[in-house]
């Protein structure tokens, strides 16, 4: 057993005998998985931002759902709270980057799982079929189960489908939630599944980061021709995913830069957020 220190930000990581240290990753030889401490920190920050950003939502109005607390408050002469007003302004800033950050984190972790090769094959995902099988278990199946047995019933009980007939409720629930035509907070699971597949194929058959970025930039701007969230959200965020994928190769260099300039980075980030908050 030996020890290595990712950076002064994080705890010393102890690596057992069945693991090794590859390109800055803790790599588990038993299950072909890697561990990156800083990813946990970024994921924690991103989760907090998502919670804060969504806490301001008072509306869910589209062709398949009808929930509008803003209108109810207006009709009953209920004034908005100062806290909610401020969170709404802050949310506009958070929405500029919180989902791209999440997809970049996913890309970074995916890069770690693509490190180990044997005879030209990825150990974690030797074939595209193996990737589809694993990601279906982790993304598609949870998406279907949670949508049918949690999301739709919860929205029904919450009055989202009020004033609709039973047949219309069923139709709107399936169309709006399961087929992502309405407002479904699980859209990112479908987007991730599609992105994993696209990036895997690019890395396996093209394996040129510059060309891959060029392709994903084109896809990013071509998304405006697609209205369905099954394709639009994946096309929108695949580029951010791949940026995280590439970043993972240089993460230790970036860690060094962050360590040396951590106070400047924190002050700059807080300043930018405040400026955007004041502008809104």
Structural notes for this entry:
Helices cover 63% and strands 10% of the residues. It is mainly alpha-helical and 280 residues long. Strands 3-4-5 form a 3-stranded antiparallel sheet, covered by helices on one side. β8 (117-118) and β9 form a beta hairpin. α4 crosses α9 and α8 packs antiparallel against α9 (229-247).
What's this model, at a glance?
The chain is mainly alpha-helical and 280 residues long. It has helices at residues 37-54, 69-75, 82-94, 98-113, 128-157, 166-178, 187-205, 209-222, 229-247, 251-260, 262-279, and strands at residues 2-4, 13-15, 19-22, 25-28, 33-35, 59-61, 66-68, 117-118, 121-122.
* % residues in beta strands: 5-15%
Which range best describes the helical content: under 10%, 10-25%, 25-40%, 40-55%, 55-70% or over 70%? 55-70%
What strand line-up does the widest sheet have? 3-4-5
Supply the number of helical segments: 11
User: What's the oligomerization state?
Assistant: single chain
Query: What structural class is derived from the secondary structure elements?
Result: mainly alpha
The string of secondary-structure elements, in order, is: EEEEEHEEHHHEEHHHHHHH
